[in-house]
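ENTRY TYPE: protein
CONTENTS: sequence, structure tokens:
***
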Amino acid sequence: MNPPTYPANLPQNLHPPTLNVERSTLNVERSLPLPHSPFAIRNSAFAILLVLLALAPAARSDTSWFDRLDDSLFLSTRDGTFRTDLSVLADLELYSTGRRPPGLLFGNDPQSINPRLSLFLDTRLGNHLYSLVQVRWDRGFDPFAKPDGTARFDEYLLRYTPFTEPWLNIQAGKFATVFGQWVHRHDSWNNPFINAPLSYENVFTITDKTAPASPKAFLGRRSVPDKKADWLTTLWGPSYTSGGSVFGRLQKLDYAFEVKNASISSRPTVWDATDHNWSDPTFTARLGTRPNAAWNLGASFSRGGYLISNPGLTLPAGRHTSDFPQTTIGTDLSYAWHHWQFWAEVIGTRFAVPRVGDADTLSYFLEAKYKLTTSLFTALRWNQQFFGKVPDGTGANQRWDQDAWRIDASLGWRIDRHLQTKLQYSYTHQHGPLLQADQLLAAQLTVKF
């Protein structure tokens, strides 16, 4: 049994388918980064390699009991009309940064361990009804966001497929967005890296909690370390927001439309239907085509309110959160050739910011994976993000955040169909003051059954 193919809004036989580009001084906490130490990174790399080399062969010694367990975690009627399967994905991650962690790694500890346990319950009733529930225990949806540990329902959905062919599917619940292609492979088993592309985890100075008092206050956020509990990203990971979707495949055309309670940039704290009201729903769509078995190309669009209801009573008089939407367009492609796999996405986003105007950002990533052997693979990813200019209140225009690029390299070992380990190194360059770590070394051990 395997965790469901992502996004969960698609059945396993159906794979989905000029901007002007603001920071406030609200409660600025100026905790300074830890001193950068190349020796800490190097020592951590050595320690991580020792741990992986010790754990992986030991785990590989006998996994036949995983096979037996895998084959027993289901309930089914004799005729197969009803069947429910339990799947498990367990991860142990080690991170070393040398200073304040970058991206969506929370906390201030430059060296941390993150365990994660995900349970998937897939249920089918006849040929037309399907449900999925994903329960996860970890230290926060994003590593170390909840350092004492937390358990929650990340996904729950009910799907109706009226035909035997995948022409039409109707779904409701809490599930991953249909935007782009990266979401299809974001889980630890299918992602050749340990983290997400820059577009899905680079925190910038837009916030959903309060409106800036002035352009000057907005631009002032650029010199503040990332406030990850308050600021947003272009897309926040897989964006498990709540709502409904309609999707399907018509010959070589994939289509998907969804209406959700929160924007694709929203933080996990507002993803449940009860966390955020439906006054400013987000509409997202993707159209894709598969010319042949090797290619998958698509275009996505999303628009909806990103501000939470009445954000701190700071909106200009007479204005509503619906007056300040997030509008996002994107294009994506994937290609497979022999031992190679390639992916690319380009995403442009405009945030309408109170008292400032339109804040635009453009990001993209290029990714390649190569199978060295039947069990070893390596991957390389180039990420870049650009920020547009906004009025600074004095008649001039300034960039509202710092342009950045990042390169990720990984080496993976799929030991067998139940065990996998990965090692990743990332280097980030950001224009302007360096407020987070520029280097990341990470390792991950995954058990799947």
